[in-house]
């Protein structure tokens, strides 16, 4: 694919995808409504291969404009995380499910050859087994339900497009569009600012992956042989980064020397899942590069360098931004 549309391209993961594709001489168009700002894309504005459509996935004219003369779509746009999705379920349904169907239909009509949908490993919800792409889904929150609904919409969609679904592990690390409402990032920030790494629960399992590694995986899928990715689901993460929240807390405690770890098992999370990433490793040769420890140090460095003014600002939280901006 030579010309790729990235929905949500100004976002936490999307800005990494834009950079990687441009570095590989791809033409990149971004559709983003600027809900979290567009400054993450400023470094690319003078690149002749970059184009920004400031629009909304709920607007069919913005969608049709965006998919014109496009070879492939990486669909990252949407409301992410259960707190933000649960705040306004109607808007979540409109953005995460209905808009996904409209985008797929418009893409097919425009002759787009490939379509990659960003889902989440949260669709596995809770279980003691190691979940694979073939495991039964067990959503325990509205965000996961919306992602499953998006997957189902695309599964039933009749098209010649090469379609792939990517279920992301829990993301961490630095990005031009930072988030501190994610486990690694938020717990590290708390350890630095409050001197306490707060762990809610502790026994719950999570798979983790750095945001830049996810972007690498998406770009790899976008150019893989058709027979490897058509109608395929890929978990994106790393087997050795399946850890409990307590283990994560102790990692942070060791690296943030002046902090202590506080485990509050009265605030346990209802999600707990370990995930296998064997399929993407064996089919596409993808392995993550950035460890959790490296990600923790990365977050520590950007906070201590004052690149990030205050991690608790609204713009670094999907829920806080949604509360203010969703209409």
Strand order across the largest sheet: 3-2-1-4-5-7-11
Count of discrete domains = 2
CATH class group of the largest domain: Alpha Beta
How far do the termini sit from each other? 36 Å
Pfam families: Epimerase
Protein name: NAD-dependent epimerase/dehydratase family protein
Domain NAD-dependent epimerase/dehydratase: 4-237
Organism: Symbiopectobacterium purcellii
Write the layout of secondary structure elements.
Elements: E1 3-7, H1 14-23, E2 27-32, E3 50-54, H2 60-67, E4 72-75, H3 82-87, H4 89-109, E5 114-120, E6 126-131, H5 142-155, E7 162-168, E8 170-172, H6 183-194, E9 196-200, E10 205-210, H7 211-222, H8 226-229, E11 232-236, E12 242-244, H9 245-255, E13 260-264, E14 272-275, H10 278-284, H11 292-304, H12 318-325
Parallel strand pairs: 1-2, 1-4, 2-3, 4-5, 5-7, 6-14, 7-11, 8-10, 9-13
Antiparallel strand pairs: 10-12
Quick gist of this model?
With 327 residues, the protein is an alpha/beta fold. Helices cover 39% and strands 22% of the residues.
What descriptive keywords fit this protein?
327 residues; alpha/beta; Rossmann fold; UDP-galactose 4-epimerase, domain 1; 2 domains; seven-stranded parallel β-sheet; three-stranded mixed β-sheet; 22% strand; globular
Overview of this protein structure:
With 327 residues, this protein is α/β, with parallel strands linked by helices. The protein has 2 domains: 3-171 and 209-236, Rossmann fold, CATH 3.40.50; 172-207 and 241-271 and 290-325, Alpha-Beta Complex (UDP-galactose 4-epimerase, domain 1), CATH 3.90.25. The protein is built from 12 helices and 14 strands. It has helices spanning 14-23, 60-67, 82-87, 89-109, 142-155, 183-194, 211-222, 226-229, 245-255, 278-284, 292-304, 318-325, and strands spanning 3-7, 27-32, 50-54, 72-75, 114-120, 126-131, 162-168, 170-172, 196-200, 205-210, 232-236, 242-244, 260-264, 272-275. The strands form 4 sheets. It has a 7-stranded parallel sheet, sandwiched between helices. The chain has a 3-stranded mixed sheet with strand order 8-10-12. Helix 2 (60-67) packs parallel to helix 4, helix 4 runs parallel beside helix 5 (142-155) and helix 6 packs across helix 11. The longest helix is centred in the first third of the chain and has 21 residues, at 89-109. The model has no long low-confidence stretch (mean pLDDT 95). This is NAD-dependent epimerase/dehydratase family protein.
């Amino acid at each position: 694919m030579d010309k790729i549309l990235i929905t949500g391209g100004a976002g936490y993961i999307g800005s990494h995808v834009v950079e990687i594709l441009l570095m590989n001489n791809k033409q990149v168009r971004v559709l983003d409504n600027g809900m979290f700002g567009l400054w993450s894309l400023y470094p690319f504005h003078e690149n002749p291969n970059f184009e920004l459509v400031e629009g909304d996935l709920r607007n069919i004219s913005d969608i049709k404009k965006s998919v014109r003369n496009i070879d492939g779509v990486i669909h990252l746009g949407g409301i992410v995380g259960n707190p933000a999705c649960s705040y306004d379920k109607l808007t979540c349904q409109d953005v995460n499910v209905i808009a996904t169907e409209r985008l797929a239909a418009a893409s097919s009509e425009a002759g787009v050859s490939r379509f990659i949908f960003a889902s989440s490993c949260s669709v596995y919800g809770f279980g003691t087994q190691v979940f694979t792409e073939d495991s039964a889904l067990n959503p325990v929150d509205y965000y996961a339900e919306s992602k499953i609904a998006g997957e189902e919409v695309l599964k039933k969609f009749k098209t010649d497009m090469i379609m792939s679904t990517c279920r992301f592990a829990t993301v961490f690390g630095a990005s031009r569009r930072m988030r501190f409402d994610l486990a690694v990032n938020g717990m590290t920030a708390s350890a630095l600012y409050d001197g306490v790494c707060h762990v809610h629960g502790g026994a719950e399992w999570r798979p983790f992956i750095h945001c830049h590694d996810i972007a690498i995986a998406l770009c790899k899928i976008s150019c893989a042989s058709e027979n490897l990715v058509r109608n395929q689901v890929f978990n994106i993460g790393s087997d050795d980064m399946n850890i409990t929240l307590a283990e994560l807390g102790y990692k942070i405690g060791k690296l943030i020397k002046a902090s202590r770890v506080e485990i509050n098992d009265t605030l346990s999370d209802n999600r707990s899942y370990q995930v296998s990433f064997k399929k993407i490793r064996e089919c596409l040769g993808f392995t993550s590069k950035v460890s959790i420890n490296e990600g923790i140090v990365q977050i520590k460095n950007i906070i201590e360098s004052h690149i990030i003014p205050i991690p608790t600002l609204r713009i670094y939280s999907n829920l806080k931004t949604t509360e203010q901006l969703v209409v």
